[in-house]
Design a protein that fits this description.
The chain is α/β, with parallel strands linked by helices. The chain folds into two domains: 150 residues, Rossmann fold (3-Layer(aba) Sandwich), CATH 3.40.50.1000; 101 residues, Hypothetical Protein, Haloacid Dehalogenase-like Hydrolase, Chain: A, domain 2 (2-Layer Sandwich), CATH 3.30.1240. The protein contains ten helices and 14 strands. The protein has an eight-stranded mixed sheet, sandwiched between helices. A six-stranded mixed sheet has the order 8-7-6-9-11-10, with helices on both faces. It is globular and about 55 Å long. GO terms for molecular function: magnesium ion binding; phosphatase activity. It holds the Pfam family Hydrolase_3. It comes from Butyricicoccus pullicaecorum. This is HAD family hydrolase.
Length: 264
């Protein structure tokens, strides 16, 4: 019996205009009344997710930063961190790549050292509610432990910076998170490990979980879930491994699939 549902945000819960379905919040309340918990599972910052779901955030679970931060409402259940020295090489490489920018992710906020690229800044603010500019990210690591680098290259991440950054796979999982983003993070941390932490916290078997996703940073989430749903608009690799394919994010796919699954 499904007791926990986890759904990705961009390309899954959010439509192509970055809007949540007006049916979602009432559905989450209905599920909670039946004892079923709902989690947003995203590469987005926790503060961003909490603000997005502010109306019902205290009733929700959050797998933020692709699994590096796990919350029940405002209660932090898990917060990852990595040695500062791990980040130096990738940041130096990113600085040398034309058209590529980076966000340094910590549990106190996110940081950038370039604010003269309006497309990057706009996209960074879309995913990071708490975002500040510092002169030097490497120097900033002396004051604040970090857990992730989010690397932005508009429309070219899969063929541009991703292959270059895979040289750091000895220390990081180098994950393609979308058409524009690559994440470098703890190889033992992902949305799937976040789902396991939530299931353990709730005291339920992982088989009693259901998950929705659309992109390659959702692979572990869907692989670990008891029932895995890929979006019709999803990456082909994800659709091949999922238990089913549901209507696209522009067709209210998650809400429709949950209603059908629970006969709501």
């Amino acid at each position: 019996m499904t007791q926990l549902i986890a759904a990705d945000m961009d390309g899954t819960l959010l439509d192509s205009q970055k809007r949540l379905s007006p049916d979602l919040f009432p559905l989450i309340r209905t599920l909670r009344a039946r004892g079923i918990r709902f989690a947003a599972a995203s590469g987005r910052q926790y503060h961003n997710l909490y603000a997005t779901f502010s109306e019902i955030a205290d009733q929700m679970l959050f797998i933020a930063e692709n699994g590096a931060a796990v919350y029940d409402g405002t209660e932090c259940l898990f917060a990852d961190k990595l040695p500062a020295s791990y980040f130096v090489g990738p940041i130096q490489t990113i600085r040398s790549l034309p058209g590529v920018n980076v966000v340094l992710c910590t549990h106190d906020g996110a940081f950038i050292e370039c604010d003269d690229d309006p497309v990057f800044v706009r996209n960074a603010h879309m995913y990071y509610e708490k975002l500040d500019v510092v002169p030097d990210l490497i120097a900033h690591l002396e004051h604040q432990p970090a857990f992730k680098l989010a690397v932005f290259e508009q429309g070219k991440a899969e063929t541009g910076c991703w292959p270059v950054l895979r040289q750091y796979e000895d220390k990081f999982a180098v994950v393609l998170s979308g058409a524009d983003w690559v994440d470098l993070m703890n190889p033992e941390t992902n949305k799937g490990s976040g789902l396991h932490r939530m299931a353990d916290y709730l005291g339920i078997p992982i088989a009693d979980t259901m998950a929705f996703g659309d992109y390659l940073n959702d692979l572990e989430l869907l692989r670990e879930a008891g029932f895995a749903c890929a979006m019709e608009n999803g990456h082909p690799d994800l659709k091949r491994m999922a238990d089913c394919t549901v209507p696209s994010n522009d067709e209210n796919g998650v809400v429709r699939a949950i209603r059908a699954h629970f006969n709501l």
